Amino acid sequence: MRASFLAILTLLMIGSANACAQNVDEQIKRVTSAMTPSIVIKGAPEKYHSLADSMAKYKVPGLSIAVIHDGKLAWAQGFGVKTAGSNDAVNSNTLFQAASISKPVSATAMLRLVEQGKLSLDAPINTFLKSWQLPDNDFTKTEPVTLRRLVSHSAGLNVHGFPGYASDATVPTVQQILDGKAPANTKAIRVVMTPGSTWRYSGGGTTIMQLAMVETTGEAFPALMQRLVLDPIGMQDSAFEQPLSQAKQALAAAGHDDQGKIVNGRWHTYPELAAAGLWTTPTDLSKWAIEIAEARAGKSTKTLSQKMATDMLTEQKAPSGLGPALGNSGEAMYFQHGGSNEGYSCFVAYFPALGRGAAIMTNGDAGSVVYRQILNALAKEYQWPAYQAREIEAVALDASMLEQLVGEYPLPAMSPNDAPRSAFITQENGKLMIEAAQFLAKDEIVLLANDELIVPDNGFQLKLARDKDGRVTHLAFGSRKLVKKSR
């Protein structure tokens, strides 16, 4: 009788497991087969496309996704290939460069050192620096640069990000990077506005934090991160290795530019470890996100105390906490961070009160367009309170406006070696289209009431500039001016 009962129980458990697996497979299918653009036009028919179509359109060879639901890893899966033109498939253990997601992971170790009394969030940063000092100037006369301000991007520093170094290039020391001295390829990191006055993103500031951590502990940064964060959380596929060790290279996805071309040498090297140096997987990033949320809830102390984790997820200078960027409030609150290194684009987001989130990593420069569409699909499937597609209302274009907009717009060179390029705005079947070779695939662009032109599929934006009579004089692309070429 007991044997029969055990047999029935075993069959029930197997059936339940199979049902759960089938349910997950159905969720993955819905997410990856019925994606929508990040921006949808009000009143227009819904446009659906597959993940494979989006990857092909934006020339992203491979990506990996890990989804968190009910505070646990729900599923993790790879798509596409590690290297364009190969059959080497991406899987859940494939390594990608985390780029700027390195920053909040590094901040976790810094906050542990604060809790251990080895660093202070509010003491002047030069207190913890030995081999190099941040120069004082008029901006620091009344307000100091501190770790709190460095980690929340409110220290008033320059140098937004880093391009990395080609595989055959000489790599500078951290001190050379901070002073902008050869072979460093970025400017000296300096205070350019009053600390604490405003939010200004600075990977340079994170690099100063890196030096403070190393000089305070006497440990090499990779070993320090392994001891304080990666090992305690169980991020077994992660390492702050720059360059990547030979043993791990076979596991790594190669970086690709926005045309799907492999980055020379497969990837760049980033000595700015805290800012951009982490190699990891979406599964490991999910472990980090879950751990921070568990610490905040008082359920874990593997890395941070409840108080410190709460401080980490408390706004310091909008939109930053002590590392992550923050959004919403109450149960809908989430923390997030994106990252873009040469050839890679990635994102992690988590709703701690709901136990829902995801990490997405891609090996393409245009991967941010694809991961935004994945986030939209995940938000719909798992009922997230953010990341749904944004709805816009397009303005009808009359003949006069079409005449003013349609034409060729020479693009300003991004560097002295750039070949001449143009963006072309055309009219096709009553729709306004835009295309720029080697930059922007042909796509519909619509006009909004605030004089913005936007491509719903990828979020590309331009702004109309008008004269006193209301006629369009040029288009603005950020700070750059696009003037239509005379016929």
UniProtKB/TrEMBL annotation:
Q: Superkingdom of the source? A: Bacteria
| Keywords from the named record | Signal
- Cross-referenced InterPro entries, in alphabetical order? AmpC-like, Beta-lactam-related, Beta-lactam/transpept-like
Determine if DNA repair is one of this entry's keywords: no
Q: Which residues form the Beta-lactamase-related domain?
A: 52-371
Q: Which N-terminal residues, if any, form the signal peptide?
A: 1-21
Q: Which PANTHER family match?
A: D-ALANYL-D-ALANINE-CARBOXYPEPTIDASE/ENDOPEPTIDASE AMPH (PTHR46825), PENICILLIN-BINDING PROTEIN 4 (PTHR46825:SF12)
Protein name as annotated: Beta-lactamase family protein
Give the organism the record lists.
Undibacterium seohonense
